[in-house]
Write a structure and sequence with these properties.
This protein is α/β, with parallel strands linked by helices and 304 residues long. The chain has two domains: 251 residues, Spore Coat Polysaccharide Biosynthesis Protein SpsA, Chain A (Alpha-Beta Complex), CATH 3.90.550; 43 residues, no CATH class. The chain is 38% helix and 15% strand. The strands form three sheets. The protein has a five-stranded mixed sheet, with helices on both faces. The protein has a four-stranded mixed sheet with strand order 5-11-7-8, covered by helices on one side. A four-stranded mixed sheet has the order 6-10-12-13.
Length: 304
């Protein structure tokens, strides 16, 4: 029995760059100790790559009317065929190293219910990864030298005990909103939300959005609007890594350091609770006046 089963619904392996980065990611997962990999869906190339990588392929997965796999179906199908202690949904362009498994093992020894996540390093990779000994250190150097740490919004993976998230709305994978809901759900259930950024290197291989209609980013699609509707409220899609309850630092689960961003976030949540009847933009203008000042200045220059 594997410690973790990672599952994902890759994009078609037809675009050369998308194929390259997905193969890089999947190879990094299959190199990990005590990890099983499940690939879902019938996109071109998925079955073949699953065989190449030694991953389990589940072709049948429920999709929305646009053919996008639903996370609820992905999780249900994965849970049925694996007995792993933990499950992890991951975007198929993410690179993990062995510190990822170390973190999962350490966290699971301290609590029965949790979700762990991390900020990612955005890095442009245009060549097949070399997984010979020492590759993890080389990747860390490359990320630190040429990559950028992504903002707290937007999470590319969630790892949790198999008994968590037993009921998930039929979110479309790869569209906005569902990742915020995952954090919101954990907080409402009082599960620890553990940010492993200080201890785990997670690399996102950058890419364009040519696989989406019009080549536009996923947060502009109708499927994102549907995800937001399924989340149930604006509050559910406002949660980010800043709402984590713990951080994994040098092998210890600690309360997050009190930063300006976290203070701003707490004030925002308090205002949204107390003044739920006010428009979202009104609350945001109070919490983040500089952002609205910049928007006004940009609008003013455009209309001169």
């Amino acid at each position: 029995m594997s410690l973790i089963t990672l599952f994902s619904a890759p994009k078609p392996f037809t675009d050369p760059h998308i194929s390259l980065i997905q193969r890089n990611a999947l190879r990094s997962w299959t190199c990990l100790p005590d990890v099983q990999v499940v690939l879902l869906g019938q996109e071109p190339g998925v079955e073949q790559v699953a065989k190449e990588m030694g991953a389990i392929h589940i072709p049948e997965v429920e999709c929305n009317d646009r053919g996008t796999p639903l996370i609820s179906s992905m999780l249900e199908a994965t849970r049925k065929i694996t007995s792993s202690q933990m499950l992890g949904i991951v975007n198929a362009d993410i690179l993990f190293g062995s510190d990822f498994v170390d973190a999962a093992r350490h966290i699971s020894s301290h609590t029965d219910k949790f979700v762990f996540l991390s900020r990612r390093w955005d890095l442009e990779i245009t060549h097949p990864m070399d997984y010979s000994p020492g590759w993890e250190e080389k990747l860390k150097v490359l990320a630190n030298n040429t990559g950028s740490l992504h903002k707290p919004a937007g999470s590319d993976f969630f790892v949790f005990p198999r008994g968590c998230y037993e009921a998930i709305p039929p979110f479309a994978v790869g569209r906005s909103g569902w990742d915020n809901w995952m954090i919101y759900k954990a907080r409402t259930e009082n599960w620890p939300v553990i940010d492993c950024t200080p201890s785990v290197l997670v690399v996102h291989q950058t890419h364009d959005y040519s696989h989406l209609p019009g080549g536009k980013a996923h947060h502009t699609t109708p499927e994102t609007d549907e995800n937001i509707r399924l989340a149930g409220s604006q509050a559910a899609i406002r949660y980010t890594i800043l709402d984590s309850t713990h951080e994994l630092i040098r092998g210890k689960l600690l309360r997050p350091a009190f930063t300006r961003d976290r203070l701003t976030r707490r004030i925002e949540l308090l205002l949204r609770t107390l003044f739920f009847f006010l428009p979202e933009k009104r609350i945001e203008s109070v919490v983040r006046p500089r952002r609205w000042k910049k928007r006004f200045e940009k609008w003013f220059k455009f209309n001169q």
